[in-house]
What does this fold into?
Amino acid sequence: MEKEHVKCLIVGGGPAGYTAAIYAARAGLSPVLYEGVQPGGQLTTTTDIENFPGFENGIDGTRLMDTMRAQAVRLGADVRMGAITSADLSSRPFSVTADEKTPIEAETLIIATGAAAKYLGLPSEQAFRGMGVSACATCDGFFYRGKDVAVVGGGDTACEEATYLASICRKVYMIVRRDVLRASTAMQERVMNTPNIEILWNCNTQEVLGDQSGVTGARLLRKDGETFDIAVDGFFLAIGHHPNSEIFSAWVNVDSEGYIITDGKTSRTSVEGVFAAGDVQDPLYRQAVTAAASGCRAALDAEKFLISHKNA
Ligand code: NDP
It folds into this structure.
């Protein structure tokens, strides 16, 4: 099959990818963007986004992403459904494969593949995934209206999800492995001021309990050695994320957790012509607006690279 040749290939349809596409399109780079398995990215699993500037009354996550995509398309970006499934970045133009079958040659590559939720790794957790086990309270919380649920984790995400769930569920247990929360003071206060949240300190989950109808509870082990069960219908994970860098980590430098390492304030990776933006390179801020900003940087860096390598 003859390879398609693109100037600027963007991998990932979240705020970083779409923003990169907007800038690259305006710069005349004719960007092609593959949205990946979750078009719109993690924001589509959120309801109200109150902290993305420009929306006085907040905006629904899916709408924000639809609008960004439409803006990129209007400006000329070629936004495609599908995923980049493999890559060879050993020489330029880079060789990548879309959907395991379509070869593409790219002069520059912007990796904006985001991050995915972590799971505990328990077999019982796997067994009940989609049957009461979820890593997205805002997507699945609705199913547990008036019921009891548990949230694992003590960070900002866990606190946010616990307070959201508390507004629709009867009771929310937070399963926290230490005797402190990692979350910001403001989020901690929100949790403490929500009467139907109970924090189970110093607890780890041994097993998710259930039957053919789904999750019925969880078996917890406290640091003092006591094992006890709680009865819940929903079991939500909020223990952090891991970067979706697997396809590229054989080529570009990544840190111990797999986050792509970029050069200083730029989006440059260890491979010339390959740039990274958004959560796949950001273990720290992970906000829609910071992802969008880094997508902008990546497009500007790609443009600069293409200009300086025009006659190379
Ligand atoms: P964090 O890494 O901040 O927190 C993860 C939490 O999960 C910690 O409490 C951690 O415990 C716990 N944990 C990790 N692994 C396990 C495990 N195997 N078993 C049990 N518990 C575990 O992730 P978040 O997703 O909460 O936040 C990531 C970043 O995003 C942060 O910078 C956060 O501030 C930001 N964020 C900001 C929001 C906002 O501003 N509105 C909303 C959501 C996130 P321990 O503390 O013991 O390590």
In short: The pocket of NDP is lined by residues 120, 152-158, 160, 177-178, 182, 239-240, 286 (CB under 6 Å). The CA atoms of residues 134 and 140 lie 7 Å apart.
